[in-house]
Structures are given as structure tokens and as C-alpha cells.
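Q:
My hope is that you can spare some time for a protein that puzzles me. I hope you can help me see how the letters and the C-alpha cells relate. Thank you; the sequence and its C-alpha cells follow:
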Amino acid sequence: MGCVTATYSCVLCVFRCVLCEPSDGTVNRFTKDTTEDTKNTENYQARQGKAFQIIHMIYSFKEFIPVVHESSFVHPQASVTGNVIIGKNVYVGPGAALRGDWGGIIIEDGCNVQENCTIHMFPGITVLLKEGVHVGHGAIIHGAIIGRNSLVGMNSVIMDNAEVGDECIIGALTFIKANEKIPRRSLVAGNPAKIIKEVSDEMIQWKTEGTKLYQSLPKEMFEHWRICEPLRKVEAGRPVQQSNYKPWE
């Protein structure tokens, strides 16, 4: 696809942006589709096993083009801008916004950034998600560092210059204020955040197993994820999904 300059207009304004491939060219793995191919279910079925062209919201900004490893899956409804580097086997869900316009974002191997998460920073700051970090739905990370194999719970907010140590578990809806330092293996919850106790071996094993599901998800998305027409009724013999991972009790 290469870099394509697109002009968007609306009642209030006209602006220009640059839509681009990540520097490894992963967008080209999807084959071209046409409007005619998407008109009915028969055409979808005829093309089963073939991917459709996906226009990712991946944008260069000034001199920076995002870098996405070919094994990682960035949902086309996620927005990735500027100085963003994404390692191997990373999952970025729909609605996530990774803004590397004012500073950098480094997402190391095996991380996941789930639906509707936001990662941003003040100018000149680099946000770092170390290997195996697990960021739950709707979380906000602003100018912080998250340690290896840590979990950031759903709708948590982690503020500027905060540092979360390795193998921490941050509970859902937790607020970690700016400049806070969270020691390794801490279980943290509340607003403002408080350390509840040390993370046990059993808890970190549970977390690691959950993250492994997300580390296998990019490959599964590339193999099985397709644009499709919805069915109009439930088919006979609809498969049952596995229950192989449960919430912590």
C-alpha cells in the first residue's frame, strides 16, 4: 500500500494526515478485496481461507513511522501513531490508542493492550511496557513504566513517571498517582492506590497463564479472523468454546 496521503473534510474543518504501513510492511499480508466481493454471503464463502484487505489506522508523525513485528496483531480499529515500537507476539485490541506523537512507546514481546486502552505521555517521555505486560480493557497508561509480567487491571489509570515493578498485579479501577514507585510483586488496588500484599507464586502463575492466551491470540487472529456477513439465525450444532481459564478466586 505504501504511504498514502488522505484528505478528510467535515463541516467544521479540513485536515491532512498520513496513513502508512508499519515499517515491516505487515499490511501487505492481506490480499486485495473489492466492493463486489463483499455484497453477499456466497462471495465470502467462496473466498474462505483468504484474508481481506484491512486498512490499519497506523500513522506516521513527523519523522517517525511505527514499527510492528510481523508476528503481532494490531486490530484495524486500533490507532497507532508516530514513535511506537511493538515487539513479537503482541496483541493490540480495537479502540486502543497508542500515541507516539510527543514521545515514545515501547511495547516489548508478548504484551497485550486490550480494547479501548490509551497510552500517551508528556513531551520527551518514553512509555515502556516490559515483556509480558498485560493491560486490561479500558486502562490508561500516561508516561509510566510497567515492569515485566505485570498485570494492569481494567479501567486502571497509571500516571506520569510512575514505575510499576516486575510481576505486579494492579487491580481493576486502580489509580496510581504520578511519580509513584510500586515495588516488585506488589498487589495494588484502590483510588488512590495502596499496596495490599505481596503477589504469591500462585497468583503470578495464574496471571502468566492468562497472558499466554493473549500471546497465542495474534497467530489465531491471522489464521481465523475474517470479515463476514452475520447469520440470520443460530445454526444447528454451533460449537461450544472451551473453558480453560477462570478468574482468580
